Amino acid sequence: MTIQAFYPIGTPGRPWGDAEVAAWRARQAVRRSYAADVLSAIETLRARFDVSEYGRLDYASDSYPLFAIRSRGWRDELPVALVTGGVHGYETSGVHGALQFVDRHAADYAGRINLLVAPCVSPWGYERIHRWNPDALDPNRSFRADSPAQESAALMRLVAPLRDRVRVHIDLHETTDSDESEFRPALAARDGKPFEPGTIPDGFYLCADSADPQPAFQQAVIAAVARVTHIAPADPDGTIIGSPVVAPGVIEYACRQLGLCAGITDAPYRTTTEVYPDSPRATPEQCNAAQAAAIRAAIDFALAHGALEGGTESA
């Protein structure tokens, strides 16, 4: 893979200011439609699920409604399963895997656990196939108090009333070749740092929360996905994207410290999926199916471990 020596915006060694962010934003073009791809799919689910608008993103001439899908017949005595997709808008299977799960599998959990699904947290990024929002901010580094990212702040407001009742949270992501060819070089340029090339893992993997990694839970998800697509091997140094592999297909991140979506609740079971859509061994359909399989395995494990009372763990 050929990597540019310098990103075409900014001055090497100097962080971006407003002019550089504006220049970067001017380069971003709409490449697909949130309304056609996502809102139309959500509309077809209204007959079976409760759909509500939990926020709206207003960026100059662009305005995007944000929708959440809930179980019909929500029962307050049941715990909650939270599914989030499209926190990075360019990670396509996170969005469509979440919608596929709702359409094909969510009904299986009726009366057992309440489902709350936010399938496309970052629609501006979805349309432009980009990781950032228009302010050149990464929503998945912005889940913290007084978040500067509208996308992150809106999701946190949605989840806040249920935060202590969430038993399982699965956040759906992808690792793509463009991470190395575009997004990490852009990040280095934005922050005025040198770009250090890395590697892209070939296959599915998980990022557990290092504060509470729940290894048996992570392995249950890996085992389910392995029936759909291949699991990423470690690099020769025993890492995936530079982080030590703690079990087959599993690394750990400090979710809250990094402002990651997977850290927004106290769910005993939480993880971040990473699908590799650029692999010659995986089709788009497999990628969506892998995300849906991961969601099902995560919820099934959570249901099988602990009392079903408000999301609290049994003794």
Could you characterize what this model shows?
- Helices cover about 30% and strands about 20% of the residues.
- The chain has about 325 residues and is an alpha/beta fold.
- The protein has one domain: Zn peptidases (Aminopeptidase), CATH 3.40.630.10.
- The strands form 2 sheets. Strands 1-2-4-3-5-10-6-9 form an 8-stranded mixed β-sheet, sandwiched between helices. A two-stranded antiparallel sheet has the order 7-8.
- Mean pLDDT is about 95; it is low at about 305-315.
Helix/strand layout:
Elements: H1 18-26, H2 34-45, E1 50-59, E2 62-70, E3 80-85, H3 92-104, E4 114-118, H4 123-128, H5 150-159, E5 166-174, H6 177-191, E6 205-209, H7 215-225, E7 239-240, E8 243-244, E9 250-253, H8 255-258, E10 269-275, H9 284-304
Parallel strand pairs: 3-4, 3-5, 5-10, 6-9
Antiparallel strand pairs: 1-2, 2-4, 6-10, 7-8
Protein name: Peptidase
Domain Peptidase M14: 30-306
Organism: Rhodanobacter denitrificans
In the CATH hierarchy, the architecture is 3-Layer(aba) Sandwich
Order of helices and strands: HHEEEHEHHEHEHEEEHEH
- Which CATH C-level class is it? Alpha Beta
Give a count of the beta strands, DSSP E runs of length 2 or more. Answer: 10
Number of domains: 1
* CATH fold topology: Aminopeptidase
Helix content: 25-40%
What is the spatial order of strands in the main beta sheet?
A: 1-2-4-3-5-10-6-9
What shape does the CA trace take? globular
Superfamily (CATH H level) name: Zn peptidases
Major β-sheet, in short? Answer: 8 strands, mixed
SS strand fraction: 15-25%
Low-confidence region ranges: 307-315
- Give me the secondary-structure category: alpha/beta
Work out the radius of gyration.
19 Å
Distance between the termini: 52 Å
Mean pLDDT rating: 94
Number of helices: 9
